């Protein structure tokens, strides 16, 4: 299973990637912002899950989610938003844009595991 982690913080990308690897997911790609993520998705059509931050330069996570959801081939791709934006309005906005699950930073490895299992069924 191939996952794409998008966050402008290299430390946060490393934390998420290390957690995913401990959970048995070894095929993890990384992007620093939405534009880079989209380029990776265009080159790598077999990505199964998108995990993205909200606040990033170039293209933020919400715009990335909207762009991904606009593509027919990605309409069922599980998307998890990992962000400091924990307000009810932000969660609703993200869900309406097409996010399947939402994690507020800081989070524990257990939370990431549960959210990932939830979106994968």
Automatic annotation (TrEMBL):
Gene3D superfamilies: 3.40.50.2300. It comes from Sulfurospirillum deleyianum (strain ATCC 51133 / DSM 6946 / 5175). The lineage of its organism: Bacteria, Pseudomonadati, Campylobacterota, Epsilonproteobacteria, Campylobacterales. This is Response regulator receiver. Residues 2-120 form the Response regulatory domain. Pfam families: Response_reg. Its cofactor is Mg(2+). One of its GO terms (biological process) is archaeal or bacterial-type flagellum-dependent cell motility. InterPro entries: Bact_response_regulator (IPR050595), CheY-like_superfamily (IPR011006), Sig_transdc_resp-reg_receiver (IPR001789). Keywords: Chemotaxis, Flagellar rotation, Phosphoprotein, Two-component regulatory system. The modification 4-aspartylphosphate is found at residue 53. Signal peptide: none annotated.
């Amino acid at each position: 299973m191939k996952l794409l982690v998008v966050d402008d913080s290299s430390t946060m990308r490393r934390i998420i990637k290390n957690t995913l690897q401990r959970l048995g997911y070894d095929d993890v790609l990384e992007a620093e912002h939405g534009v880079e993520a989209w380029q990776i998705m265009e080159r790598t059509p077999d990505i199964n899950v998108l995990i993205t931050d909200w606040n990033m330069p170039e293209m933020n996570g919400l715009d990335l989610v909207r762009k991904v959801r606009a593509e027919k081939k990605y309409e069922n791709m599980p998307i998890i938003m990992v962000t400091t934006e924990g307000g009810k309005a932000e969660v609703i906005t993200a869900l309406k844009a097409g996010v399947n699950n939402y994690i507020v930073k800081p989070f524990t490895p257990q939370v990431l595991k549960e959210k990932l299992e939830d979106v994968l069924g």
